[in-house]
Backbone:
């Protein structure tokens, strides 16, 4: 059976949207939610296996649990006409018997002959044009965060530069004061030494006269 919303697995989103850019790998995340109280196996297929990488492309989702799948589109050298993509994905799911969980997921689990309850959901691929970071005006004013970010960064850098210059000037002033204090201390010590030597000379002279 086929439906937009799987009966066994809830799939979000129901279409893969890639912000298309040339020569760049682009990823899109899928979340699979087990709607049942049973173990559900899944397998993800695509009409263009060389173009997309799916990790993991199969697995088992525990009852009422979720599983994350990442679909990565390989870097493209050319854009499709009118940005229209004909690629499609198929998510197969099957309820597993209550016995032991199998070590690996096989294609036989999703056939009618297996006797399992099987569900299939088709997903479309949509290419969207990424928004330039320096645009995004709203109501005639620069309202996007991407527009404001460069100016906020420049302002922050200027503040840090001014703070650094001010701190450097203070350090220079303190260093000059410290040098002057050292010079004064050295000069005072020399004067005291000269006075002590002079007094001792006078005392020795007086003792010699006696």
Residues:
């Amino acid at each position: 059976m086929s439906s937009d919303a799987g009966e066994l697995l809830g799939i979000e989103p129901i279409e893969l949207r890639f912000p298309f850019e040339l020569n760049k790998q682009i990823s899109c995340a899928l979340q699979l939610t087990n709607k049942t109280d049973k173990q559900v196996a899944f397998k993800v297929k695509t009409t263009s296996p060389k173009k997309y990488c799916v990790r993991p492309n199969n697995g088992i989702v525990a009852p009422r649990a979720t599983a994350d799948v990442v679909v990565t589109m390989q870097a493209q050298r050319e854009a499709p006409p009118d940005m229209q993509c004909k690629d499609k994905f198929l998510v197969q799911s099957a309820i597993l018997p209550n016995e032991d969980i199998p070590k690996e997921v096989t294609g036989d689990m999703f056939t009618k002959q297996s006797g399992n309850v099987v569900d299939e959901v088709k997903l479309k691929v949509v290419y969207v044009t990424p928004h330039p970071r320096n645009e995004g005006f709203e109501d005639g004013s620069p309202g996007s965060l991407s527009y404001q970010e460069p100016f906020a960064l420049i302002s922050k850098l200027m503040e840090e530069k001014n703070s650094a210059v001010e701190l450097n000037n203070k350090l220079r002033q303190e260093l000059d004061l410290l040098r002057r204090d050292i010079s004064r201390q050295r000069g005072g010590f020399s004067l005291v030494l000269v006075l002590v030597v002079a007094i001792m000379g006078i005392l020795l002279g007086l003792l010699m006269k006696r």
